[in-house]
Amino acid sequence: MEHTKGGFTMPGEAGYEKLTLELAERWGADVVRDSDGTKLSDEIIDAGYGVYSTICIIREHNEFGRAHPECLQQTFLSTEPQIAQGDALDVRLMAGFFDQQFRVNDGEASMGYWQVWDRTENVLVPRERWTYREGTVTVTGTVPFHVYTVSFLAYRLWEEINMYNHVTNSWTSEHLMPIDPRLPAAQEYLYGYLDNWCREHPATTVVRFTSMFYNFVWIWGSDERRRTLFTDWGSYDFTVSEKALADFEREYGYALTAEDFIHHGDLQVTHMPPTAHKRDYMAFTQRFVADFGRKLVDLVHSYGKKAYVFYDDSWVGVEPYGPHFPSFGFDGIIKCVFSGYEARLCAGVPADIHELRLHPYLFPVGLGGAPTFMEGGDPTRDARQYWMSVRRALLRAKIDRIGLGGYIHLLEGFPDFVDCIAGIADEFRAIRALHDGGAPAALPLCVAVVHSWGGLRPWTLSGHFHETYMHDLIHIIEALSGLPVDVRFLDFDQVKSGALEGVDVLINAGRAGTAWSGGDVWKDPQLVAAVTGWVMDGGVFLGVGEPSAAQGGWGYFKLRDVLGVDLDTGARVCHGRYTFDVETVPGLLPEGAGVRGLDHLYLTDGKTRVLAAGNGLPTIAAHPLGKGCGLYLSSFQVNHANTRMLLNLMLWASGKGLAQPWLTDTPEAECAVFPASRKLVIINNADEARTVSVATENGVRTVEMPPCGLVIQSI
Amino acid sequence: MEHTKGGFTMPGEAGYEKLTLELAERWGADVVRDSDGTKLSDEIIDAGYGVYSTICIIREHNEFGRAHPECLQQTFLSTEPQIAQGDALDVRLMAGFFDQQFRVNDGEASMGYWQVWDRTENVLVPRERWTYREGTVTVTGTVPFHVYTVSFLAYRLWEEINMYNHVTNSWTSEHLMPIDPRLPAAQEYLYGYLDNWCREHPATTVVRFTSMFYNFVWIWGSDERRRTLFTDWGSYDFTVSEKALADFEREYGYALTAEDFIHHGDLQVTHMPPTAHKRDYMAFTQRFVADFGRKLVDLVHSYGKKAYVFYDDSWVGVEPYGPHFPSFGFDGIIKCVFSGYEARLCAGVPADIHELRLHPYLFPVGLGGAPTFMEGGDPTRDARQYWMSVRRALLRAKIDRIGLGGYIHLLEGFPDFVDCIAGIADEFRAIRALHDGGAPAALPLCVAVVHSWGGLRPWTLSGHFHETYMHDLIHIIEALSGLPVDVRFLDFDQVKSGALEGVDVLINAGRAGTAWSGGDVWKDPQLVAAVTGWVMDGGVFLGVGEPSAAQGGWGYFKLRDVLGVDLDTGARVCHGRYTFDVETVPGLLPEGAGVRGLDHLYLTDGKTRVLAAGNGLPTIAAHPLGKGCGLYLSSFQVNHANTRMLLNLMLWASGKGLAQPWLTDTPEAECAVFPASRKLVIINNADEARTVSVATENGVRTVEMPPCGLVIQSI
């Protein structure tokens, strides 16, 4: 691979100027940046590179926070359940919570939002039946053996990313407080702070916001056996305050309650379909974040600097595919990535610059607590593994920049890693150059994924793959991220109102009742009929796991008559089952492909074709219907063989056929063709050498591919 | 074992008189019987034995059936779903059904009960929008891409036990029709028939009714790949008719509809909680069966004969634990058994004589279609295996008689089997003699099982073990059938109204939403508080699988705060989980004991003690609460080790302690002590010799037990 330059953001570190500049040269960097915990020195800043400066605008203001404790960010908390034994009950609010993170907000306005619940009866305890004193709520008139909880507002004393880094890396610095810009005093202060900051940092070319104001929720407990009580990358819990609630009521004409957040103690999990109130509150918060965010971006622009947003950590409310994102005026978006889908997520955002921050982060330990740049770590292996996932997505969609973050002094013992990154940077620039010549070709296959969040949150569920691996859909999306097909994301309303026009395959994948499968939305006969009619007219509905599942009425899968399979929830245990033979379609299932089975699955129609089975249950099935087809997979685990299987199944079921040009003969290798520049790029995703043949329009071309290799050829 | 006589019912067979009488002597028989397909000759009848004559009162009347086709039994059927493509749809009613079993009843009264459903919208199609002609319903005004079904009444042309035997054994005789005594003409005819029959059979000492009038439901399809469309041992589908529906409406003041039976195409599965309408209809049918049944029993008695009922096949409506059973006046009940729980079921019925018909049935093939008395069969192994399951239950409750059924000529090639049955008969009589001396002692442990059917259907779910093995509860009940504890069965109303008084352990076991777990009944706060309060006062709630589970509100297991565990249905995927260590309680879990895990299970309380785990999930857990305890098992598979584990867990959790007298030191052996007669009986349930020690009140007693052996000692 030719050594090139540009499109690379280099973490600098004061005290390691020589190393910084050497590595910048080695990796072809054009920008240096600081990180959480590092600073750039003048020597680095003056070396002729662009300069990114990281700002987490809502922290590092402890003096202001101490002077204005009402400006700290908050959240709703709910106590652990307590069983009443007599007619009164004392509930200590903070029992079980991490007292360095929270402090009860017992102000009058706050207490107006507190709730005491009889959870057994599912009724609110009237306000006159409870009192509060010194951290304890006393409930009277309790029903013996009913379970009670108290919901209350708490200030957050410790910004959670700082808390995490502190604990993980044994920092001893002062705990940073999170300031809530919802309060005018805070907003005014933060605006002035940024104004001053811009003035004092003339060398900064890009302000890298990390991110805006509100972190994803991360509630810690006091028990080491369960330190995390709740964390959800997509949740809005940490945006709440008395003022937010009052503003909301004024704007929407109805009041939210604690229960809109606490939700039977389950909280509002992103993986479940949102309530109408949650949707309203999200929209309300998004507008606020965009309004004040735009003012900050305008301020940055007024200093001749650019503003990029890091889409992680305090991203909540930013929603890069939401209606307000363009109004921020960001010049670029930066996404940290482990996976291909995260690269696609970044690439599709309406912004000028799309940058990936690669993993591993240059820290002693990684996100899961495993060693990285220390004894026992193997960062080169990690980097290559992540790159193998990300690279295939880069063939499909253009990314403008990549980079790293963290402490570069940690690299001194890892020369392999430095080489590995050099290779990655050159591969990245070679791929980017292909896109500069015109878009890659795609197969004539339009794939739509439908879930509750639809186009608001394409190419993700909530956070990283290792946080969401238990959901079939993230495996599907990761597979799709590098396939040569058109992919779009729809919500259920769009499906009902014509968005299936032009779609070849509609995917619905997930556990029953989740945001991914859809839950009770499938009780809508219009939705069911819209999909059914579209399939009969030639569409392919691909259901995975418990697609279209909802309790009650006809079938558990509401599209059982499209899929030709259903799941027995207990009511069908006495019904006969079709016996079946497994049918082999030549070339359809690559060697090693297959998915885990699901108990209680059965065929609803003798015409259903079983393509794979395990433990006597179908695992892959196809059901011809009209001009189209229902396709069912019990589950999906992403790997090379299953990724190709997914493509094959979609081509086969939609009648396009498996004999398509520009496909490799082995699932471990993939390729893309760029017609305008007449270039073919082949990648070997395997860690071993492979002989790869590619079906082109003019016959088969065979290439010897090194392990993890990338080859570009003219056609 | 001493060779004894009596208490044994011997199937005789005309043409094999010598064999019949030889075997009767060998097995110590005191009664001979005929079977479905065999007759007794005068030589057998006159040999000095009691004579049982089998009568299935509703069949063998084809001449009457042909003359009165309106007197054939019926059922509701629902067509396979069809998707409308335009604004009209033709539905052929019999498509998919076995045409030798059913014929559409298109009489005017019948058609008044037919229904056409738009299943997609879950609405009934108005009567004026469909017409019927020559087997086909034409629906107009259909909504494109909605799914439609038609529910209709069909006559049943072939009594299903006859149909099954015919097909299984390649019979060529005329198909027998089932006559419905609900119609006065049929009732009058059947009464006269029985009167005549009694007169013509002076040698018969016992009329063995098989059973009363209505078979459990068994709907066959036309497709060999799915011959059984629906079968449910506990269902009342085959009792329906226009007259039954009209009589019901007159009596109850409201009309049942086809949908009360068809129920979204799921039908009314015994394993699901019954609807209120179903309960009413069952009570209505039970009264009818008992009313006409009593008349037939009275008639039998008037001839100086006794009347026994065989509790299988056409048992529907008899319900031997129901309120009407004593009013039949049966002198005895006969139950065919594979398992211990079936022996307990029989033993507890209020009747003078309790008889078990052992398996295997003397037929070439067994119930599952596997060979028995033919090439490839091993009936001796089968008989011993069933006896090992049944025998342990006989130690706990007295059975008066055992016997066999079928063709004895098949035994000629199986001398081992003849020996095996001789041994079983002697063991049976030895055990019966122990009970004659007074009841066995039990541990001070009262165990109650709660489910939707409660005391109406104790000691069973629905049919045999091999039909219900997929339910944890039948495994639990089978384990309980031979344990030295008091066992009772409760419904949920009883639990709410004081029936837990005196109970030490309450068991709730099953999948969410089923009759066994209970379903939405757990949304009743009174029920939840009643169990919670009882536990806090010292009770043990033992939940298995998805106990007390119901969607919505607080927790999925409504007793999560008693159990200390819950199951994540998707809303808790972002919540932290308690880590745990597995705790070892000496002596609690026998070697080899353990249960299969359940995905998505988590601890709700740090105080929950994990006693076993698999794949990182708790499988057995205990949660101390007040003076009592919640006990949780992810599932239950009955075997020797787990049976003892169940006993141990109940003793331990209820604070009784594991050191109880009259327990063996190995789970494969069990014992019972009969205090009045000062006898100890020890059984070895294993197929290998065992040295077994028994803790008695005066120290340990050690016995060498042969494989499958039974030893009786004085104490």
Protein topology:
The structure is a homodimer of 715-residue chains.
Chain A: E1 8-11, H1 17-27, E2 31-33, H2 42-45, E3 50-55, H3 62-67, E4 74-78, E5 82-83, E6 88-92, E7 102-104, H4 108-111, E8 115-118, E9 123-124, E10 130-133, E11 136-140, E12 147-156, H5 160-168, H6 184-200, E13 206-209, E14 217-220, E15 228-232, H7 242-252, H8 258-262, H9 276-302, E16 306-310, H10 325-328, E17 332-337, H11 340-347, E18 353-358, H12 379-396, E19 401-403, H13 415-436, E20 446-450, H14 465-468, H15 472-480, E21 486-490, H16 492-496, E22 505-510, H17 525-536, E23 540-545, H18 560-563, E24 565-567, E25 601-603, E26 609-614, E27 617-625, E28 628-633, H19 640-653, E29 663-664, E30 669-674, E31 679-684, E32 690-696, E33 699-705, E34 710-714
Parallel strand pairs in A: 1-2, 1-19, 2-3, 3-13, 13-16, 16-17, 17-18, 18-19, 20-21, 20-22, 22-23, 23-28
Antiparallel strand pairs in A: 4-12, 5-12, 6-11, 7-12, 8-9, 8-12, 10-11, 14-15, 24-25, 26-27, 27-28, 29-32, 30-31, 31-34, 32-33
Helix pairs in contact in A: 6-9, 11-12, 12-13
